[in-house]
From TrEMBL:
One of the GO BP terms on file: cellular response to hypoxia
Record's protein name: Prolyl 4-hydroxylase alpha subunit Fe(2+) 2OG dioxygenase domain-containing protein
UniProt keyword list: Vitamin C
GO molecular-function terms, A-Z: ferrous iron binding; L-ascorbic acid binding; peptidyl-proline dioxygenase activity
Claim: Cell division is one of the keywords in the record: no
Species this chain originates from: Romanomermis culicivorax
Length: 123
């Protein structure tokens, strides 16, 4: 997808990450068969791992990241826990998920789950 990725160079975090990101849109990027298959697989898994009283009518865009060479990186770091503030939980309630290797976290990143990534430190 040449030309569609947005470089992070010039941003305040360029010294930490210099990858490129792209928000994949199934309606626009319908020619990307393999990426569509991955997204559908992740959606299928997510829909079966959680017990929710409704199904989604549509899905949002998926974020893709590219490390194009020339020293592109995301520096080794410690921390960066995911903190969720579910909208259906009592006010002030939050849940933390520590970043462990080989773990996959799937969650709705919309108004149902306001979230943040806690600060990291370099190793």
């Amino acid at each position: 997808m040449p030309g569609k990725f947005k470089p992070k160079n010039g941003s305040p975090v360029a010294s930490i990450r210099s990858d490129q990101i792209y928000w994949f849109d199934e309606k626009v990027d319908d020619h990307c068969v393999n990426i569509r298959l991955i997204i559908k697989t992740v959606t299928f898994i997510a829909m079966r791992l959680i017990d929710i009283p409704y199904r989604l009518a549509c899905r949002s865009k998926a974020r893709l990241t590219c490390y194009p060479g020339d020293g592109a990186r995301y520096v080794k770091h410690d921390g960066g826990s995911l903190r969720l503030f579910p909208s259906n939980a009592p006010a002030g309630t939050h849940f933390g998920i520590e970043p462990f290797a080989d773990n996959l976290v799937i969650f709705w990143s919309d108004s149902r789950n306001p979230h943040e990534i806690l600060p990291t430190s370099t190793i």
